[in-house]
Protein backbone atom coordinates (compact mmCIF):
# COMPACT_ATOMS: atom_id res chain seq x y z
CA UNK A 1 0.00 0.00 0.00
CA UNK A 2 1.45 3.41 -0.95
CA UNK A 3 2.68 5.74 1.79
CA UNK A 4 0.33 8.71 2.25
CA UNK A 5 2.19 12.02 2.15
CA UNK A 6 1.26 15.54 3.20
CA UNK A 7 3.41 18.29 1.66
CA UNK A 8 4.01 21.58 3.46
CA UNK A 9 4.61 24.63 1.29
CA UNK A 10 3.31 22.93 -1.85
CA UNK A 11 3.65 26.15 -3.89
CA UNK A 12 7.32 26.73 -3.04
CA UNK A 13 10.23 25.69 -5.27
CA UNK A 14 10.87 22.46 -3.39
CA UNK A 15 7.21 21.85 -2.56
CA UNK A 16 6.28 21.91 -6.24
CA UNK A 17 9.12 19.61 -7.21
CA UNK A 18 8.24 17.14 -4.46
CA UNK A 19 4.56 17.24 -5.39
CA UNK A 20 5.28 16.61 -9.06
CA UNK A 21 7.54 13.67 -8.27
CA UNK A 22 5.00 12.13 -5.90
CA UNK A 23 2.50 11.90 -8.75
CA UNK A 24 5.12 9.91 -10.69
CA UNK A 25 6.04 7.64 -7.76
CA UNK A 26 4.37 4.23 -7.45
CA UNK A 27 4.96 3.96 -3.69
CA UNK A 28 3.75 7.37 -2.47
CA UNK A 29 0.35 9.05 -2.71
CA UNK A 30 -0.24 12.75 -2.10
CA UNK A 31 -3.21 13.03 0.25
CA UNK A 32 -2.85 16.58 1.52
CA UNK A 33 -1.06 19.87 0.93
CA UNK A 34 -1.06 23.25 2.59
CA UNK A 35 0.37 26.74 2.35
CA UNK A 36 0.58 29.77 4.62
CA UNK A 37 -2.86 31.32 5.22
CA UNK A 38 -1.98 34.43 3.19
CA UNK A 39 -0.84 32.43 0.15
CA UNK A 40 -2.82 33.05 -3.07
CA UNK A 41 -2.71 29.29 -3.69
CA UNK A 42 -4.92 28.42 -0.72
CA UNK A 43 -8.19 26.97 -1.98
CA UNK A 44 -6.79 25.98 -5.37
CA UNK A 45 -6.57 22.44 -6.68
CA UNK A 46 -3.09 20.95 -6.23
CA UNK A 47 -3.02 20.08 -9.92
CA UNK A 48 -3.36 23.76 -10.80
CA UNK A 49 -0.44 24.61 -8.53
CA UNK A 50 1.77 21.87 -9.97
CA UNK A 51 0.85 22.33 -13.62
CA UNK A 52 -0.95 18.99 -13.68
CA UNK A 53 -4.56 17.92 -14.33
CA UNK A 54 -7.01 18.49 -11.49
CA UNK A 55 -6.45 16.12 -8.57
CA UNK A 56 -9.38 16.82 -6.27
CA UNK A 57 -6.90 17.75 -3.53
CA UNK A 58 -7.35 21.32 -2.31
CA UNK A 59 -4.49 23.40 -0.92
CA UNK A 60 -5.41 24.10 2.70
CA UNK A 61 -4.19 26.92 4.93
CA UNK A 62 -2.87 24.89 7.87
CA UNK A 63 -1.31 21.57 8.78
CA UNK A 64 -4.15 20.80 11.20
CA UNK A 65 -6.62 20.49 8.34
CA UNK A 66 -4.70 17.69 6.60
CA UNK A 67 -2.46 16.02 9.17
CA UNK A 68 -4.81 13.13 9.97
CA UNK A 69 -4.88 12.06 6.32
CA UNK A 70 -1.17 11.29 6.03
CA UNK A 71 1.49 8.88 7.20
CA UNK A 72 4.34 11.35 6.69
CA UNK A 73 4.75 15.13 6.46
CA UNK A 74 7.36 16.48 4.04
CA UNK A 75 8.45 19.99 4.98
CA UNK A 76 10.76 22.30 3.00
CA UNK A 77 9.41 25.65 4.17
CA UNK A 78 10.79 28.29 6.57
CA UNK A 79 12.52 27.71 9.89
CA UNK A 80 9.78 29.25 12.03
CA UNK A 81 7.07 27.41 10.09
CA UNK A 82 8.84 24.05 10.34
CA UNK A 83 9.18 24.49 14.10
CA UNK A 84 5.46 25.20 14.39
CA UNK A 85 4.66 22.15 12.26
CA UNK A 86 6.78 19.98 14.55
CA UNK A 87 4.95 21.35 17.59
CA UNK A 88 1.61 20.49 16.02
CA UNK A 89 2.78 17.05 14.97
CA UNK A 90 3.86 16.22 18.51
CA UNK A 91 0.14 15.66 19.21
CA UNK A 92 -0.29 13.28 16.27
CA UNK A 93 2.98 11.34 16.00
CA UNK A 94 3.21 11.35 12.21
CA UNK A 95 6.57 10.70 10.58
CA UNK A 96 8.29 13.86 9.34
CA UNK A 97 10.92 14.78 6.77
CA UNK A 98 12.31 18.29 7.26
CA UNK A 99 14.72 19.77 4.72
CA UNK A 100 14.31 23.39 5.81
CA UNK A 101 17.47 25.42 6.45
CA UNK A 102 18.22 28.55 8.46
CA UNK A 103 17.31 27.24 11.92
CA UNK A 104 18.60 28.96 15.02
CA UNK A 105 20.26 26.49 17.39
CA UNK A 106 17.42 26.65 19.89
CA UNK A 107 14.80 26.09 17.16
CA UNK A 108 16.53 22.98 15.87
CA UNK A 109 17.06 21.68 19.38
CA UNK A 110 13.35 22.03 20.14
CA UNK A 111 12.45 20.12 16.97
CA UNK A 112 14.88 17.35 17.89
CA UNK A 113 13.52 17.19 21.44
CA UNK A 114 9.96 16.89 20.13
CA UNK A 115 10.91 14.15 17.69
CA UNK A 116 12.81 12.17 20.29
CA UNK A 117 9.64 11.95 22.37
CA UNK A 118 6.80 11.97 19.85
CA UNK A 119 7.60 11.10 16.22
CA UNK A 120 10.24 9.76 13.81
CA UNK A 121 12.04 12.56 11.98
CA UNK A 122 14.54 12.70 9.14
CA UNK A 123 16.07 16.16 9.40
CA UNK A 124 18.88 17.11 7.08
CA UNK A 125 20.13 20.20 5.31
CA UNK A 126 20.75 18.35 2.08
CA UNK A 127 18.97 15.19 0.98
CA UNK A 128 20.86 14.42 -2.20
CA UNK A 129 22.69 11.11 -2.35
CA UNK A 130 25.80 12.79 -3.72
CA UNK A 131 26.16 15.34 -0.93
CA UNK A 132 25.78 12.69 1.75
CA UNK A 133 28.42 10.55 0.07
CA UNK A 134 30.57 13.69 -0.06
CA UNK A 135 30.10 14.04 3.69
CA UNK A 136 31.53 10.58 4.30
CA UNK A 137 34.42 11.20 1.89
CA UNK A 138 35.18 14.48 3.66
CA UNK A 139 35.21 12.72 7.04
CA UNK A 140 37.66 10.11 5.73
CA UNK A 141 39.87 12.73 4.10
CA UNK A 142 39.93 14.86 7.25
CA UNK A 143 41.12 11.85 9.27
CA UNK A 144 43.95 11.12 6.83
CA UNK A 145 44.96 14.76 6.27
CA UNK A 146 44.54 15.84 9.88
CA UNK A 147 47.95 17.50 10.16
CA UNK A 148 49.57 20.03 7.87
CA UNK A 149 46.48 20.72 5.76
CA UNK A 150 44.28 23.80 5.89
CA UNK A 151 40.57 23.12 5.36
CA UNK A 152 38.25 25.49 3.53
CA UNK A 153 34.61 25.02 2.51
CA UNK A 154 33.33 27.09 -0.42
CA UNK A 155 29.60 27.11 -1.16
CA UNK A 156 27.68 28.82 -3.97
CA UNK A 157 23.92 29.28 -4.39
CA UNK A 158 21.42 31.37 -6.33
CA UNK A 159 20.84 35.03 -5.54
CA UNK A 160 17.46 34.34 -3.89
CA UNK A 161 18.79 32.11 -1.09
CA UNK A 162 18.04 33.79 2.22
CA UNK A 163 20.46 32.09 4.63
CA UNK A 164 24.25 32.02 4.61
CA UNK A 165 26.27 29.95 4.87
CA UNK A 166 24.22 27.11 3.47
CA UNK A 167 23.00 24.35 5.72
CA UNK A 168 25.07 21.91 3.68
CA UNK A 169 28.25 23.91 4.29
CA UNK A 170 27.54 23.78 8.02
CA UNK A 171 26.80 20.06 7.76
CA UNK A 172 30.23 19.54 6.16
CA UNK A 173 31.95 21.79 8.70
CA UNK A 174 30.42 19.90 11.62
CA UNK A 175 31.41 16.57 10.06
CA UNK A 176 35.02 17.76 9.82
CA UNK A 177 34.99 19.20 13.33
CA UNK A 178 33.57 15.97 14.72
CA UNK A 179 36.31 13.71 13.36
CA UNK A 180 39.08 16.19 14.25
CA UNK A 181 37.75 16.94 17.76
CA UNK A 182 37.28 20.61 16.97
CA UNK A 183 34.35 22.88 17.78
CA UNK A 184 32.39 25.72 16.28
CA UNK A 185 34.92 28.14 17.75
CA UNK A 186 37.24 26.98 14.95
CA UNK A 187 34.80 27.97 12.19
CA UNK A 188 35.84 31.10 10.26
CA UNK A 189 33.14 32.75 8.16
CA UNK A 190 34.70 34.80 5.35
CA UNK A 191 37.66 37.13 5.91
CA UNK A 192 38.36 40.84 5.60
CA UNK A 193 41.13 43.25 6.47
CA UNK A 194 44.50 42.48 8.00
CA UNK A 195 43.72 39.15 9.58
CA UNK A 196 47.19 37.81 10.27
CA UNK A 197 48.45 34.29 9.77
CA UNK A 198 45.89 31.53 9.37
CA UNK A 199 45.42 29.53 12.61
CA UNK A 200 46.21 25.85 11.97
CA UNK A 201 42.94 24.51 13.42
CA UNK A 202 40.69 26.91 11.55
CA UNK A 203 37.88 25.55 9.32
CA UNK A 204 37.08 28.24 6.77
CA UNK A 205 33.57 28.65 5.35
CA UNK A 206 33.15 30.95 2.34
CA UNK A 207 29.89 31.97 0.67
CA UNK A 208 29.05 32.92 -2.93
CA UNK A 209 25.62 34.13 -4.06
CA UNK A 210 24.63 34.78 -7.66
CA UNK A 211 22.43 33.95 -10.62
CA UNK A 212 20.52 30.68 -10.56
CA UNK A 213 23.18 28.39 -9.06
CA UNK A 214 21.27 25.44 -7.60
CA UNK A 215 24.01 24.46 -5.18
CA UNK A 216 27.76 23.86 -5.26
CA UNK A 217 30.00 22.79 -2.41
CA UNK A 218 33.77 22.30 -2.44
CA UNK A 219 35.89 21.18 0.48
CA UNK A 220 39.54 22.15 -0.02
CA UNK A 221 42.39 20.47 1.83
CA UNK A 222 45.46 22.63 1.14
CA UNK A 223 48.87 21.34 2.14
CA UNK A 224 52.41 22.32 1.21
CA UNK A 225 53.03 21.33 -2.41
CA UNK A 226 49.58 19.85 -3.01
CA UNK A 227 45.88 20.34 -2.47
CA UNK A 228 42.87 18.06 -2.66
CA UNK A 229 39.41 19.33 -3.62
CA UNK A 230 36.17 17.40 -3.13
CA UNK A 231 33.24 18.97 -4.98
CA UNK A 232 29.54 18.36 -5.43
CA UNK A 233 27.48 20.33 -7.96
CA UNK A 234 23.70 20.09 -8.15
CA UNK A 235 22.20 20.96 -11.53
CA UNK A 236 18.57 20.54 -10.48
CA UNK A 237 16.54 20.63 -7.27
CA UNK A 238 15.14 17.29 -8.35
CA UNK A 239 18.05 15.54 -6.65
CA UNK A 240 16.96 17.03 -3.29
CA UNK A 241 13.31 16.17 -3.92
CA UNK A 242 14.10 12.56 -4.80
CA UNK A 243 16.12 12.29 -1.62
CA UNK A 244 13.18 13.63 0.38
CA UNK A 245 10.87 10.97 -1.06
CA UNK A 246 13.44 8.30 -0.28
CA UNK A 247 13.58 9.60 3.29
CA UNK A 248 9.77 9.62 3.53
CA UNK A 249 9.55 5.96 2.53
CA UNK A 250 12.31 5.03 4.97
CA UNK A 251 11.15 6.94 8.05
CA UNK A 252 7.44 6.10 8.00
CA UNK A 253 7.74 2.95 10.12
CA UNK A 254 10.60 4.04 12.39
CA UNK A 255 10.42 4.68 16.12
CA UNK A 256 10.37 8.26 17.46
CA UNK A 257 13.79 9.82 17.14
CA UNK A 258 16.02 12.00 15.01
CA UNK A 259 17.56 10.54 11.88
CA UNK A 260 19.55 11.99 8.99
CA UNK A 261 20.16 11.06 5.35
CA UNK A 262 23.22 9.04 6.32
CA UNK A 263 20.80 6.76 8.20
CA UNK A 264 18.46 6.62 5.20
CA UNK A 265 21.30 5.72 2.83
CA UNK A 266 22.98 3.26 5.19
CA UNK A 267 26.17 5.34 5.27
CA UNK A 268 26.27 6.41 8.91
CA UNK A 269 28.43 3.59 10.25
CA UNK A 270 30.78 3.26 7.27
TrEMBL record:
InterPro entries: DapB_C, DapB_N, DapB_N_CS, DHDPR_bac, NAD(P)-bd_dom_sf. Keywords: Amino-acid biosynthesis, Cytoplasm, Diaminopimelate biosynthesis, Lysine biosynthesis, NAD, NADP, Oxidoreductase. GO terms for molecular function: 4-hydroxy-tetrahydrodipicolinate reductase; NAD binding; NADP binding; oxidoreductase activity, acting on CH or CH2 groups, NAD or NADP as acceptor. (S)-2,3,4,5-tetrahydrodipicolinate binds at residues 158, 167-168. It is found in: Cytoplasm. It is an enzyme of class 1 (oxidoreductase). Catalyzes the conversion of 4-hydroxy-tetrahydrodipicolinate (HTPA) to tetrahydrodipicolinate. This is 4-hydroxy-tetrahydrodipicolinate reductase. The lineage of its organism: Bacteria, Pseudomonadati, Thermodesulfobacteriota, Thermodesulfobacteria, Thermodesulfobacteriales. The gene is dapB.
Amino acid sequence: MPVKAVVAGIAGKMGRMIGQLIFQHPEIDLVGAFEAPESPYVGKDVGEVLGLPRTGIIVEDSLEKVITKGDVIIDFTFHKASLQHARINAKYGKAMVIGTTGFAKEELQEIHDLATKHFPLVQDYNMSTGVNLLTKLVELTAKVLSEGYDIEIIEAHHRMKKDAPSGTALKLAHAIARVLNRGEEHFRFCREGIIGERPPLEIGIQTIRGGDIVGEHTVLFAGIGERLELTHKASSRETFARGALRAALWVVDKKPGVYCMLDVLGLKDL
